[in-house]
Amino acid sequence: MKKKKMMKFFSAMIVTMVVLFTSIPIHADNGSPKDLVENIVKNKNMKARILWYDLSANLDSLDTPEKVADIVAKTAQANINTIVLDVKNRSGFVPYPSEYSPHLSESQNPNYNWYPEDYDLIETVLEEAKKYDIEVHLNINVFSAGDIVYNEGPAIDNPDWQTIVYDVNRIVTEENGNTYPIHGFDQSRGTNQLIIYTPENNDVAPVNRWGIDVVVENDTVVDIIDQAITGAEEVPVPENGYVVSGHGEARQWILDNVEVGEQLDIASVDTQLKPVSETTGPAAFMNPINPDVRDYTWNVIEELVENYDIDGITLDRARYNNIYTDFSDLSREKFEESIGQEIVNWPEDIFTVEFEGDEKVIQPGPYYQEWIKWRAQNIHDYFEATKNFLRDLDSDVLFNTYVGSWHPLYYSEGVNWGSKDYHPEYDWAAENYNETGYANHLDFLMTGLYYGDVTIDELEGRLPYWYSVEGAADLSMEATQYDTFVYGSLYLIQYQDRPEDFKRAIEMIEEKMHGIMLFDLVYIEMYDWWPLLEEVFDKETTIPHSVPGFLQKLRSY
Question: Where is the DUF4985 domain (predicted)?
Fold first, then answer.
């Protein structure tokens, strides 16, 4: 046992003995593991308090030993007992020397490439956290490992690793038949995107000097405003038409193909299967069942475990990017093997996409439920294999993950983070969907209770109960069936200028769950909420997963 873990072992045992003799009795030797995990919820002195240090958002707060020392000291002063340090961002870049991942200083992204080349963020945080006996878990973005905008990262360097996207878009078609995909309606325009602004939602198109705007009335182009020349001229949206707004590649397509007086069509639909790097999404995801991808992720984990004295490994984005992936030849082959049938119409026999107004609507095909279960089974199998891999490396290193708490919708990412004992009645779920649940493979689970309404009553029936912190906490505990310790997470930006509601949300989570995760450090600093945390977390607590007897019993289940 490493020195740090031995010290934490004895410390946890001493603290736990005090807690257990001064609070609700909990006996690790009596009852089932599920009884143990359920009973701990009632113990106010046994709560995980986790602060997430997001890598990209906090680069300039964590780029020197002095800044790290200040942040970790504040973390300890607020009685936070666990840090999740994000060390591999969604682009696949890292702030430590690595054989498998590019360093931030190598990036083309100006937000990253200034980071000190010879600086090891992990070692710096570990050194400071040790002073306060704070746990440190290293987070890696698992299947997201490339930046599409800057065309870099491991997923970009290895095109065969990428997910294949079932890309269905409305398209703009000009008179000569040239087309360009529409990336959205009535939303902010991103890099290389083409957006349509309609009169139903806009009086004026939200323009800037980096784009071009085409005014269309009765399907005819009446004006073209190149904002690079005019300097962000205001563009009213006509009542009998719309505005086509393009940036980057979309802007150039408009300059090359569209003229005043010609007809435009925006009703047609284009369907393609294409690598994720050829889409406009920001992050390049990798296929979870590709053997080379899985080996790459395990190499990253092994490097971290072997080189650093850490408490745990956290997985983020351990999923598919969305419902539209992965439609590669490999996935088709493995899916057909699993169902014992050949798919004649690929991917239409899985599902088709129709448009209702400007919204995409999935129309399930004959193999839709089997496909949903198969993807979830793939993620389950990855978690099980990764748990075993990590236990073989170092059984003292804890295994955990972050997921969104919206279990009824999370099938779109190919994930069932619940218990195998949980049988949800969803119209998309196959009868045996519960078999894909992976909660029992985790030492703890963090679920995102990312809602501004704290109580179910505050929803006033506008949305399902789980669109509140209270309801999402209830659903998280119900879906996991006490297979593991569950910590509710808050997205702090949702409580900006609402400190009292933020405190209520914390109290709600600590009442209903095993602990709390706060996302993210950047907002604590931005809002100067350290004093608020010291007020709410006024006493030290024991982390449920840090108690060896509890964890041993949970793992034996």
Answer: 425-535
Cis before 186? omega within 30: no
Which region holds residue 181: left if phi is over 0, alpha if psi is between -120 and 50, else beta?
Answer: beta
CB atoms within 10 A of CB 111: 12
Report d(CA 224, CA 215) in Å as an integer.
6
Do residues 556 and 391 touch, judged by C-beta distance below 8 A?
Answer: no
Radius of gyration of the chain (CA): 25
Q: Which domains does the chain have, with CATH numbers?
A: 104-164+274-556 (3.20.20.80), 175-263 (no CATH)
Alpha-carbon distance of 456 to 474, in angstroms, equals 10
Which pair of tokens denotes residue 428? 């998309």
Kindly give the residue spans of alpha helices, DSSP state H, lying in 137-264: 154-157, 227-230, 249-257
Tell me the C-alpha distance between 386 and 74, whole Å: 33
- Which tens digits make up the pLDDT trace of 55-65? 999 999 999 99
Q: What is the dihedral of CA 97, 103, 104, 105, to 10 degrees?
A: 90
At 536, which amino acid appears? Answer: V
From the centroid of its chain, how far is CA 205?
31
User: How far is 338 from 332, CA to CA, in rounded Å?
Assistant: 10
Distance of alpha carbon 23 from alpha carbon 417, whole angstroms: 31
Mean pLDDT per block of 10 residues along the chain (557 residues) reads 50 45 45 90 97 98 98 98 98 98 98 96 98 98 97 98 96 95 91 93 91 96 94 92 96 97 94 94 96 98 98 98 98 98 97 89 98 98 98 98 98 98 95 97 98 98 97 98 98 98 98 98 98 97 94 86
Which tokens is 300 given? 């990253």
**Encoded amino acid at 89, one letter:** N
DSSP 8-class letter at 28: T
- Residue 507: what are its φ and ψ, rounded to 5°? -60, -40
Helix axes 3-22, 548-555, angle to 10 degrees: 100
pLDDT in tens, 473-527: 999 999 999 999 999 999 999 999 999 999 999 999 999 999 999 999 999 999 9
- Burial status of residue 67 (CB atoms within 10 A of its CB: 0-12, 13-18, 19 or more): middle
Structure tokens at 360: 């995409």
Task: Return the closest-CA partner of residue 421 out of 405, 408, 433.
Answer: 433
Compute the distance between CA of residue 526 and CA of residue 475 in angstroms, rounded to an integer: 31
β-strands 359-364, 398-404: how paired? unpaired
In DSSP notation, 38-82 reads: HHHTT-TT--EEEEEE-TGGGGGGSSSHHHHHHHHHHHHHTT--E
Place of tokens 């999404």: 281
